[in-house]
Design a protein that fits this description.
Elements: H1 16-23, E1 37-42, H2 57-66, E2 71-73, E3 79-81, E4 84-89, E5 95-100, H3 114-133, H4 146-150, E6 154-161, E7 164-169, H5 186-189, H6 194-198, E8 218-224, E9 228-233, E10 246-251, H7 255-264, E11 269-271, H8 275-281, E12 287-292, E13 296-302, H9 323-330, H10 335-341, E14 347-349, H11 373-382, E15 402-408, H12 414-426, E16 431-437, H13 439-445, E17 459-465, H14 471-475, H15 493-503, H16 508-525, E18 528-534, E19 536-541, E20 545-546, H17 565-568, E21 571-572, H18 606-619
Parallel strand pairs: 1-10, 1-11, 15-16, 15-17
Antiparallel strand pairs: 2-3, 4-5, 5-7, 6-7, 8-9, 9-10, 11-19, 12-19, 13-17, 13-18, 14-18, 20-21
Helix pairs in contact: 9-11, 15-16
Length: 638
């Protein structure tokens, strides 16, 4: 996921406790007030606090700490209580009724009611209407969140009373239950115009700077862009609360630095470590590594823009618009080699845009390619791309083809991919100019004229992360998304038709056939070459926090998943007794270091050992170690 928003204003610390957080080393510390701090690390630089401008994985992680979705995600990605605590559908599936939990408050103490959910959903409806009426298109921020509601066919929304939200849809579907749209506080947001909310530029953009007001378990209270963001426990949170009183998400310029910080105990959790680092950490007695299955992919994205020349930008050759040219290049990509070398074996070769994570919807291509340089050369010859006297491939205008291949500085592993691609394609007579681009600049370079940019690239190496339903990944290649989601500018009317059909299809077999056809279309025409489904490599310390809960339970990761559930299950290992499990709650699997495969299964015996030791001390007349934070009532598990 990615974001074009980088405009940031200077921020100030809001309290003495936050000053201490900012000046102390990057570490989980027990301060004088006995606050327990969870510190996580990522190499993604948080771009924005306005959810409508969110695209990066870290952006989504941040706003689901601040806010509730109408329905959250449970441990196994099932719909779970969020801003609404119950829901039902009409017999025809066109009307959804959500009960907003009684007595809920925003973090500033203001009552949270259906009026806030109505405001949020109506904001999306209004933005969509403005987009439909605009010749140039209109997007609310990055244009990402609206799709969760428009693809669910939302038609109207109403709030007959403070506890009820009613949503009418154009067609029967369950996509509304997976809508990744945070419910916002009307009393904070309603004073801002649609344009102020939708843009980080201009005279009065609404940047949603700290302290953020939300109903999520933690609220952003201080932000130093490019360095870290600090969250403080929401005293009005309605649900189960985890052990951490504060959460700090730290940005690292290099993953080596993040891993060293984990090993030294300066941070507790790292997302996105490299394969060699992952392997090296497996023997550390205080660190658990987690290999999560991929709900996304890394791809070669071709600039296929064909709506006319772009002065000062565009692709370097029209060959990229030709599916036969792209298909030929795909025959000269050894995905298994990239998995073995770039990923260190932590992943699997890519095929279609719906990863195997979606067991009900993934379909291998009907006409799969293999790694075959001779076949790639044959196809280029047959497609009309000859060589000159020096062996260089020429496009149909007679120009030597040298493709600009770039990737963001936050995805260092693509440098290895680029080396192989350059080598393989040189055997086809296709030149490669490979270089890294600063993430923010690349986001700008990818925008076509419809998005206010120049589409100034040939090939981009990056990736996408999906949702529990494949619709968001399928949406990326719609022609309608050129100028917003689309980074290849693929435009196929049949694909677009199938997209609309599958999202409104209630029969699973029929929907699978439609999604299968979409996967085959994009595989054969190759606006993307899916390089691999790279595993999510995370690691965390086991000597400080317990209760690490993988999401999903089979093959998931504790944090940077879907919603805030992982944070709410954490326990303080120095505390005795451990936080009481609430009635009806399901304890997530805790990973034990030294498991047979270094994976994320098994149970963490540390809390049990500590509990037994404490019990012995108590029996002997010793002092009972008390928890380092005040007890917090939890009315309901998320």
């Amino acid at each position: 996921m990615r974001s074009p928003i980088r405009t940031r204003a200077a921020r100030v610390l809001v309290a003495l406790g936050l000053v201490l957080t900012a000046v102390l080393p990057v570490a989980r510390l027990a301060t004088a007030s006995n606050h327990l701090i969870l510190k996580t690390g990522t190499d993604q630089d948080l771009q924005v606090l306005n959810p409508f401008s969110s695209i990066l994985v870290v952006d989504f992680e941040i706003f689901t700490l601040n806010y509730d979705l109408l329905l959250n995600f449970g441990q196994d990605l099932e719909p779970a209580p969020g801003f609404a605590d119950s829901w039902s559908a009409s017999d025809d599936g066109l009307t959804w009724t959500f009960h907003i939990r009684d007595g809920m408050k925003w973090s500033d103490g203001t009552p949270a009611t259906s009026a806030d959910a109505l405001y949020t959903y109506q904001l999306v409806i209004d933005a969509t209407a403005k987009s439909d009426a605009s010749e140039d298109g209109y997007y609310l921020g990055a244009g990402y969140l609206e799709g969760y509601l428009t693809n669910a066919g939302i038609k109207s929304v109403s709030a007959p009373d403070a506890s009820t939200l009613v949503v009418e849809t154009e067609f029967a579907n369950t996509l509304l239950l997976n809508a990744y749209v945070p419910i916002l506080p009307r009393h904070i947001w309603e004073s801002h115009t649609l344009d102020e909310i939708g843009s980080a530029e201009g005279s009065t953009p609404f940047l949603n700077e700290p302290p953020v007001v939300g109903t999520g378990p933690y609220q952003a209270t201080e932000w130093q862009p490019g360095d870290h963001i600090t969250f403080t426990r929401n005293p009005n949170y309605w649900g189960k609360q985890g052990a951490a009183d504060q959460v700090v998400v730290q940005t690292f310029q290099a993953m080596d630095t993040a891993v060293q910080a984990l090993k030294s105990g300066e941070i507790d959790y790292v997302r996105g470590i490299q394969p060699d680092q992952f392997t090296a950490l497996q023997g550390d007695p205080n660190i658990q590594v987690v290999e999560g299955i991929s709900n996304g992919f890394s791809e070669i994205a071709f600039n296929t823009y064909n709506r006319g020349p772009i002065e000062g930008g565009g692709a370097s050759t029209t060959a990229l618009q030709d599916p036969k040219f792209r298909d030929a290049l795909a025959w000269a990509i050894d995905q298994q080699k990239l998995v073995d070398v770039t990923l260190g074996g932590f992943g699997e070769p890519g095929t279609t845009i719906v990863p195997p994570f979606h067991t009900r919807w993934h379909s291998p291509p009907d006409n799969p390619r293999s790694f075959d340089i001779a076949e790639a050369n044959r196809r280029l010859d047959a497609a009309g791309y000859p060589r000159d006297a020096s062996g260089n491939r020429l496009d149909k205008e007679g120009k030597v083809i040298t493709l600009r291949v770039t990737w963001p500085d936050s995805e260092a592993e693509h440098a290895t991919d680029a080396q192989f691609i350059k080598e393989w394609w040189s055997e086809l007579g296709v030149g490669v100019d490979a270089f890294v681009t600063e993430e923010g600049k690349l986001l700008d370079d990818l925008l076509p004229p419809e998005g206010g940019g120049l589409a100034n690239f040939d090939i981009e190496l990056w990736g996408w992360v999906g949702d529990p339903d494949p619709t968001s990944l399928l949406n990326v290649l719609r022609g309608e998304e050129i100028g917003s989601f689309s980074d290849s500018f693929y435009d196929n009317p049949r694909y677009d038709e199938l997209f609309l059909l599958q999202r409104a299809e209630s029969d699973e077999a029929t929907r699978f056939a439609q999604i299968k056809e979409m996967q085959n279309l994009t595989y054969d025409e190759a606006p993307y070459i899916i390089l691999y489904y790279d595993a999510e490599l995370h690691a965390y310390r086991t000597d400080r926090f317990g209760g690490w809960t993988n999401q999903p339970s089979d093959g998931g990761t504790p944090l940077f998943g879907y919603g805030s559930i992982g944070y709410t299950h954490l326990t303080d290992l120095s505390a005795v007794p451990a936080p009481t499990q609430e009635p009806g709650a399901t304890a997530g699997p805790s990973a034990a270091p030294g498991g047979p495969d270094g994976g994320s299964t098994g149970s963490d015996s540390t809390p049990l050992i500590l509990g037994i030791a404490a019990l012995v001390v108590v029996i002997a007349g010793g002092l009972l170690v008390m928890r380092r934070r005040s007890a917090t009532a939890a009315s309901e598990e998320e």
